[in-house]
Amino acid sequence: MVPRLMTAFSGPLLEIERRFLDAMPEIERWLRGQWQEHTPPFYGSVDLRNAGFKLAPVDMNLFPGGFNNLDATFLPLCVQAAMAAIDRICPDARRLLLIPEKHTRNLFYLQNVAQLAAILRLTGLDVRLGSWSPEIDRPTPVALPDGSSLLLEPLLRSRSRLGLEGFDPCAILLNNDLSAGIPPILQNLDGQFVLPPLHAGWALRRKSNHFAAYDEVAGDFARLVGIDPWRINPYFSVCSSVNFHERQGEDCLAANVDAVLGLIREKYQQYGIEETPYVVVKADAGTYGMGVMTVKDAAQVTGLNRRQRNKMSVIKEGLAVSQVIIQEGVHSYERVGSGSDEGVAEPVVYMIDRFVVGGFYRVHSGRGKDENLNAPGMHFEPLAFETSCSLPDHCQNPDAAPNRFYVYGVVARLAQLAASLELERTAPIEEQVACA
Amino acid sequence: MVPRLMTAFSGPLLEIERRFLDAMPEIERWLRGQWQEHTPPFYGSVDLRNAGFKLAPVDMNLFPGGFNNLDATFLPLCVQAAMAAIDRICPDARRLLLIPEKHTRNLFYLQNVAQLAAILRLTGLDVRLGSWSPEIDRPTPVALPDGSSLLLEPLLRSRSRLGLEGFDPCAILLNNDLSAGIPPILQNLDGQFVLPPLHAGWALRRKSNHFAAYDEVAGDFARLVGIDPWRINPYFSVCSSVNFHERQGEDCLAANVDAVLGLIREKYQQYGIEETPYVVVKADAGTYGMGVMTVKDAAQVTGLNRRQRNKMSVIKEGLAVSQVIIQEGVHSYERVGSGSDEGVAEPVVYMIDRFVVGGFYRVHSGRGKDENLNAPGMHFEPLAFETSCSLPDHCQNPDAAPNRFYVYGVVARLAQLAASLELERTAPIEEQVACA
Hints:
2 copies of one chain form a homodimer.
Chain A: E1 4-5, H1 10-22, H2 24-37, E2 43-50, E3 55-61, H3 75-89, E4 95-100, H4 107-122, E5 126-131, E6 140-143, E7 149-154, E8 156-157, E9 162-163, E10 171-175, E11 193-195, H5 207-225, E12 236-239, H6 250-271, E13 279-283, E14 292-295, H7 299-302, H8 306-313, E15 324-328, E16 334-336, E17 343-352, E18 355-365, E19 381-384, H9 401-426
Parallel strand pairs in A: 4-5, 4-10, 5-7, 10-11
Antiparallel strand pairs in A: 1-16, 2-3, 2-17, 6-7, 8-9, 12-15, 13-14, 13-15, 16-17, 17-18, 18-19
């Protein structure tokens, strides 16, 4: 099942889809060229929003969860892409240490970890799971709903290497986004590949760096296919020195909200779009939909009540928010079901290395098209993409499922490419490690 | 459906499968290392024989037909592998010229060409089909059973480049095995990639070079996993200067048949196998199961009647046979169906670059387990592998379908690796071309 697009503005998106299909040889060749210049992150997932008149990434996750939500038929594709990634990064690797998030009681998340470990094992790597959580003070099996179990083991640090008891890995794959900072146990490693690099974690990463890189990528790409870059790129702006508790930075926030709303309004006018513009205010460092607010008027950010200010103040791991990004809101026009069962569907596309390996929709019933679907505690139903993103079909309509998924895969790869640029530019100056 | 193995000797194969499964991390790492040293052919298909006590490649095709016989669910895997191959070989390529076999009235074959073109187009290449057949003197559409059509166009040669009217490709992919020799139109090209290289065609290629390289690969691999290399490697021997018409070389043939049968007999004794040894005598240069003979006694090759000698004398394109390979026959113990519907099933594994992308069984009813299933005019039913070759499952029996297919995929990759060595060693000394 593929969500239907509920919009009066499907004209422009059909046009985007048609352009992408027509330009497919140029697009793929351009991407091949880009990957010669830039190294893709090991993996990533991209949240897209499809507004009919606009299709854009709104978030790029470098520590993707949710691999368990991909359709099982695409497991071979994941394995093959992971093989290609390992060939490129560390062909000599034999053992890989996977470090998941600490919240070991979230079974949804642990099923993702199990799936990820399965994919990596199928490439022929010896994979074990390590944790620096104090609870994991000995090898700890965790039962999963399907009857299998995961073994979490305490990390063991020597002078320059990280491993487990009896396990000295060549590569360390983080599925932990380092929101709580880079723990000393991960610092100053020598001769081990850390994937993605430490500065990809939220301890150092900033959404605004990503979207600045995406601006460039989207601009170049839009020139290539002959579209207005705005069709695939949300406006954004940044305020630093914000302190919601102390109502510090509210003026900056209001001014920037106003400015971004103004820019959107112009575009809506230009294209005759009669929707209400909105922006999403969110922590520049952070994830999990915490510290996120939908705003349609600058007055909203100056008149926050205590509860709202508290909500905006902290993100995951209790970290205080001090810099925020004000991002153009992109309406979600994809819906599934009908009547009271109707829900908004937000596509999430998964990549390993340069390859799109699958995706699913986050389907949430009873939420508006301009609300954040990835809020904390938010329940969503995953709806796996039913076909691959690599099978566009010129014989079908531009909005037929294989073609829509192809277009999603292209935009997701633009975000993956932006992440490459972002990581290059934010990399600390240090020596590259070699595979020991 | 997976063919059942009808053999009293499943013990040793179960053991091979178990060893492969246990050694999977070592196997995959070893293969990664090999691919760092050796460049895989663009594509290939390998005919395997599964005798229960032995699992071996008996033929390696560098111009594979039959892509249309792969299960549709593995199309994304083909596309992704082809993307990786193009990334590696000619990332800058925009246009690819595909040159199929000349027999344009074979609809089975043309469906393969259509599938291959589809895979390549899905990587974003602009693909067109060229032919040097005199029949194709203008762009000629050929209707396919599914209602689609292929456009075959006459080749156009400039001083140093090959293309079509209005189409100057960077890469030329041969699906024509050059049995009739290397036509002048393909010679002395400059700045265009020819895949696979011209010396991979049967005009120059010899099976004996392939199996000599396979000897080495199988030996190294057998040491790695701790098995007798004979378990995965058929004995072979070569006679040059054979002329069946003039009964020249019969003594050499008889002596070599005798020698190979003797070696097989020793192994059968060693392992307590009570089957009758046989060898397959076939043209050292050639394909399509022409010039192939099953022999159980040296006397058979000295007492050939005129009809048999005629049959052995010519291969595809009417070429005379002058060198033959005497290869250990590997019994086909895989069978499908029952009663009069029962048939022998021979697995064929498909690869693109380093990756196994699928496979199928050639199922032929009413043929013996020691007969050649790929004879001219031979009708077979393809039976697509139902799971990928990359999903071995340690929780299932070693002979469960995913595990058997994994083992097939490993042996097929050994043959692909042997083809890399073979092509390196037989390459003419010339400059590498660069992508123009």
